[in-house]
Structures are given as C-alpha cells and as structure tokens.
Amino acid sequence: MNHILLHEARQVWRAVLRAEAQIHVHQWQTWADSQVLSVQEPPAWVLRLSTAGSRKTALAAVEQDIGREVESELDPDALLIGFVVARHLRGELSTEAMWVKLNQTADVAEFLDSGKWQRYSVEVEAQGEPCESVAMRSLSQVASFANAKLSLLLSSPAEV
Q1: Does 137 have pLDDT greater than 80?
Q2: For the chain, what are the domain ranges?
Q3: Rounded Cα distance, 36 and 116, in Å
C-alpha cells in the first residue's frame, strides 16, 4: 500500500483547509484519530486536528509550529493552487472567484513563471494557444496532482 509521510500529510491538510476545499469535519477527525491509534507518539498537531470542530480550528491545529518540521518535497504552493483550481473545475468557484482566491492565498504568477508547474504537468502544447488556456491547462494538471495526494491521504495511513 502507498503511504504518505506524516509531514507531507500536514502540508496536504494545510493546503486543503486554506483552499476551503470540500472537506468535512469527520474526514479530518477520522484521519487524525487513525493516526493517533497507529503512531506510537503522534505529533501534537495530529492530536489537535483530531479534536478540531471547525475548519478554522483545524487550520490552526495544522499550522501551529509548522516551521519546526523537516522540509517536504511537496510544494505547498502547488497543493494550495491545485485545491483552489479543483474547486473551480468542480463548479464551486467561478473563474473570477478562482483567480481572486488564488491571488489572496498564493503567488500564482510566480508559480507559473518559475516553471514549477511543469513538475506536475504533462507536456503542454502552447503553439498558437492563448496564454490563459495554457495556464488553465497547466493549473488543471496541478489540481489533479493535489487531488491525488488528498485521495492517498484519505485512503491510507501515514508514516512518520
């Protein structure tokens, strides 16, 4: 079974909660409770997440002392951008609302300009296409990556 590392799981939860993605209290509590039962000494953020009754307290639980962790190979901007774009693709956000949310939470222009999105994207054919459609296709690939990470997180236990 594929596992996600606990510090990567924290990054995924942070991005999901910041993006205001469709996630319910029971999902993060069930996940956190399973970690409490399976990890000998669960981190404090997992214990706090297991009792968080709202998105705001869940986000606070995940973000508290986040700088003290080992760096993850997951790009937090990619996750956050991916979850916001996924909301748009599911029809939860209009195109305008998506861009507003992205500009409030992440530096999308820097993400696209830096080429970081290419790590998550298949070859994007840009010849003759408007810049917006190339950007949207690129961001759609990032959304697929973020959703895959969330699915992995929810379907399997994390590892320390």
Answers
A1: no
A2: 4-71+151-159, 76-149
A3: 34
